[in-house]
UniProtKB/TrEMBL annotation:
<dbReference type="InterPro" id="IPR014710">
    <property type="entry name" value="RmlC-like_jellyroll"/>
</dbReference>
<dbReference type="InterPro" id="IPR013096">
    <property type="entry name" value="Cupin_2"/>
</dbReference>
<protein>
    <submittedName>
        <fullName>Cupin domain-containing protein</fullName>
    </submittedName>
</protein>
<dbReference type="InterPro" id="IPR011051">
    <property type="entry name" value="RmlC_Cupin_sf"/>
</dbReference>
<feature type="domain" description="Cupin type-2">
    <location>
        <begin position="77"/>
        <end position="117"/>
    </location>
</feature>
<dbReference type="Pfam" id="PF07883">
    <property type="entry name" value="Cupin_2"/>
</dbReference>
Length: 129
């Protein structure tokens, strides 16, 4: 899960506002991913869509300059960019993504998400049993 963030402008590790909405969405009801969360100035906003024993689905909104780093994770993550552009760094290798792009982050890898522009993403974390 999220550990630490930093401000891109300053280049130093600092705690950043991480606004978490733990409420889940009702099953069998439609919703628009781009509309379920708003950007918040100088913060990363996280909304839980569904939390199950072996799968967590979350939506994130990153303000410009925000970075979210994960230590090595034993879980597979599926990332889909909903809006904007993102830089995803997996084991030190950068991948630039834009709206509509997706990537699978393998288990046992470290990664970070960097907001060179504001962006929203969907993250599905799959726990190996």
């Amino acid at each position: 899960m999220p550990k630490i963030g930093r401000n891109r402008e300053k280049g130093t590790l600092i705690l950043i506002p991480l606004i978490m909405d733990r409420g889940e969405f009702e099953e069998s009801k439609t919703f628009n991913l781009a509309d379920i969360l708003e950007f918040n100035s100088n913060a990363i906003v996280v909304k839980n869509i569904s939390v199950q024993n072996n799968c967590i689905i979350q939506a994130f909104a990153f303000d410009y300059g925000k970075v979210l780093s994960h230590n090595e994770s034993p879980f597979i993550r599926f990332i889909h960019i909903i809006e904007g552009k993102a830089e995803v760094v997996i084991n030190g290798n950068s991948t630039f993504m834009r709206r509509g792009d997706s990537i699978i982050i393998p288990a046992s890898t470290s990664c970070s998400f960097e907001a060179n522009h504001k962006f929203k993403m969907l993250c599905t974390t799959i726990k190996n049993e």
